[in-house]
Amino acid sequence: MAATQPTPYKLTYAQRAEKLSNPTAKLIFETCERKKSNLAVSVDVTKAADLIAIIEAVGPYTHVDILEDWDPALIERLQHLSAKHDFVYFEDRKFADIGNTVALQYSSGVHKIASWSHVTNAHVVPGPSIIQGLSSVGRPLGRGLLLLAEMSTKGSLAVGSYTEEAVRMARKNQDFVIGFIAQRRMEGVGASADEDVSQEDFMILSPGIGLESKGDAMGQQYRTPREAIVNTGSDIIIVGRGIYGTDLSAVDSIARKAERYMSEGWSAYVERLQSV
């Protein structure tokens, strides 16, 4: 009798990295393993100085398209910080337009996202053309794309057939689509009865992570790192306000909170491995 292979997400990050072909997907898991961290910090600030201060404090994945004082010289600074602190950039752009338009948005304009951001993401409302457009820019650069399969807000419409179609699109574009923004594992979702998806390995990044609060006034719903990583199989937890709050000058406090989330996330990952 042949031994069954373990579900990929129950392997270590390093083991999963060895099996992946997309350069960015490999880099993310190798970085997680090297730093013993599965924390992504979502930095929603409007000033470049605040962005740089938080990056220096926590070395996160980050996004910058809401900055009011973007300067092209900032790209070089961001690239320097990525190398200095050994982290990967995730530009949470949430593209949602036709292929030609998103290709221009991704490659050009003031932000030139593809030139510095390792990962970006997109809604699948426009259909497969959005992946084709972004891939035409990002794939030659070795970048990776996440699809928004689910969202953490109350009443989200990204459920059911929408989620299933997002996964089907990803399966057809595994050289560029590396995973999903989602609240659970996507293996088997939307697959036909004759498809063998037992060894597919899409990474899951989950927003809506909090240790103190269960939600906010705008419909955000929070889960603990353990709930996300152990109970529902997330690979990377995305934390924003739970780390930097409202006082962006409190650098020491921001760093301590980031360290706490990093520790909680890594402990949950180790627990998941031990449960195999």
From TrEMBL:
Keywords: Decarboxylase, Lyase, Pyrimidine biosynthesis. GO terms for biological process: 'de novo' pyrimidine nucleobase biosynthetic process; 'de novo' UMP biosynthetic process. CDD domains: OMP_decarboxylase_like (cd04725). Its EC number is 4.1.1.23. The keyword Transmembrane does not apply. It is an enzyme of class 4 (lyase). GO terms for molecular function: orotate phosphoribosyltransferase activity; orotidine-5'-phosphate decarboxylase activity. Residues 38-254 form the Orotidine 5'-phosphate decarboxylase domain. It comes from the Eukaryota. Pathway: Pyrimidine metabolism; UMP biosynthesis via de novo pathway; UMP from orotate: step 2/2. Substrate binds at D44, S152, Q220, G240, R241. The active site is at D92 (for ompdecase activity), K94 (for ompdecase activity), D97 (for ompdecase activity). The keyword Transmembrane does not apply. InterPro entries: Aldolase_TIM, OMPdecase, OMPdeCOase_dom, RibuloseP-bd_barrel. Pfam families: OMPdecase. Belongs to the OMP decarboxylase family. This is Orotidine 5'-phosphate decarboxylase. It comes from Panaeolus cyanescens.
